[in-house]
Design brief:
This protein has 16 helices and 15 strands. The protein has 416 residues and is an alpha/beta fold.
């Protein structure tokens, strides 16, 4: 029995977010404009369909909002068409599958254990259940194995190839992938598979100019809006093809969704507008600087990071090999000193998913709060020292000291 009101629980969560160091790579702190739109009276309006073609009356201003969001999104990523209605990244991906290929078709996607996403073919996802999935992974250095990618492409002759990751810390060269696909077509005479990019994790970095864009190479691109893009929770789909967008629109509505969440679409539009401003580029640049400094703090102490470092917003720290503590233990223990992260499997992980050998660490959220490179270097030292106490079983005796160390870093940033 929970003896608190919803408002009281929200207040508790607000306090947690204000006092914890947020290192989950897929989380961020959107602006008040975004939050206000997400909680606005637009939630009252039903608007099944698309601008100018609704199944409900009273959509004049709703059409303006959705049309403006599409315009800003296309401008942000330099593409021709977009759908802003998907409720989340997974539903955006599902819409692409349904729009472009058929159940049972072959799809190549990055293996979840290597850094991919559930919807790229995991057996517990619709993607792995409804389609014939051929997974590719990373080499011994933790880098996407393009040799394996090419071999499996020629062997499986897929109808669609998905590129993108949820825990991969290096730059993805979308042109290089496209070159491989073009070469495959030339050498085999096979039809080129649809080239889908899931840029959910790096969308904000692409918008900020610190990561290559999947355009003009990809046929279709999906993303969330709440990670590095710093918007509300939701999904988007982009393309340069008029034929593809027509199929996508039908797949989203009425294919897999009903009424769109126009309050969230408005919040998405605001985040696109914000990402078009010069200061967002500075923000994206700082995210990457912070991630590199943070990872170096661990590397300098001899700790292992998958792929040896990072070129984007996150990295996976192999705590099991580095110090003999599982990802689950790390997640739970760091939470006790007000540091939030998530356990994460590493390639060929010897531990099961609910334990995991690694933790995924990201810098977007705390960069929003003003953290710089030196702040993250200090935090790496705190984490290393505290996990040594965990390994020795002495963490309870020193926990309050470490809480104070974390609070000092937070307060020093606020005081600047």
């Amino acid at each position: 029995m929970i003896n608190k009101t919803y408002e009281e629980i929200i207040a508790l969560e607000a306090d947690r977010q204000n006092h914890n160091v947020e290192l989950i790579a897929s989380e961020n702190f959107p602006s008040q404009r975004v939050l206000s739109a997400a909680g606005s009276i637009l939630t009252n309006k039903y608007a099944e369909g698309y601008p100018g073609k609704r199944y409900y009356g009273g959509c004049e201003f709703i059409d303006m909002i959705e049309s403006k969001a599409i315009e800003d999104l296309c401008k942000l990523f330099s593409c021709n068409y977009a759908n802003v209605q998907p409720h989340c990244g997974s539903s955006a991906n599902q819409a692409v599958y349904r729009a472009l290929i058929h159940p049972g078709d072959t799809v190549m996607g990055m293996d979840l254990g290597a850094g991919g996403h559930l919807t790229h073919g995991h057996k517990m996802s619709f993607s792995g259940q409804d389609y014939n999935i051929v997974s590719y992974g990373v080499d011994e250095n933790g880098i996407i194995d393009l040799k394996e990618f090419k071999e499996k492409l020629y062997e499986s002759k897929p109808q669609m190839v998905i590129v993108g990751a949820s825990s991969y810390s290096q730059i993805i060269d979308y042109k290089e992938i496209n070159d491989i696909l073009e070469e495959y077509v030339k050498e085999t005479g096979e039809k080129k598979p649809y080239y889908m990019v899931d840029m959910a994790h790096v969308a904000g970095l692409i918008a900020g100019g610190v990561h290559p864009s999947p355009f003009p190479y990809a046929d279709v691109v999906t993303s969330t809006t709440h990670k590095t893009l710093r918007g509300p929770r939701g999904g988007i789909i982009l393309t340069n093809s008029e034929d593809i967008i027509k199929k996508i629109n039908k797949a989203v509505f009425p294919g897999i969704q009903g009424g769109p969440l126009e309050h969230i679409i408005c919040a998405k539009g605001i985040c696109f507008e914000e990402a078009l401003k010069p200061e967002f580029k500075e923000y994206a640049e700082q995210i990457v600087k912070n991630a590199k400094a943070f990872s170096e703090g661990f590397l300098e102490e001899g700790w292992k990071i998958i792929s040896g470092g990072t070129q984007n917003h996150m990295f996976v720290l192999d705590v099991y090999e580095s110090i003999g503590v599982t990802g689950k233990e790390t997640e739970e223990e760091l939470d006790k000193i007000h540091i939030t992260c998530n356990k994460n499997q590493i390639p060929n992980d010897p531990l099961p998913p609910l334990k995991s050998s690694g933790v995924r660490i990201g810098t977007p959220a705390m960069t929003t709060k003003g953290w710089k490179e030196d702040d993250f270097r200090k935090l790496s030292k705190v984490i290393i020292d505290y996990l040594k106490e965990v390994k020795e079983g002495t963490q309870e005796a020193v926990r309050e000291d470490y809480i104070e160390k974390v609070e000092k870093i937070i307060n020093d940033v606020k005081a600047r």
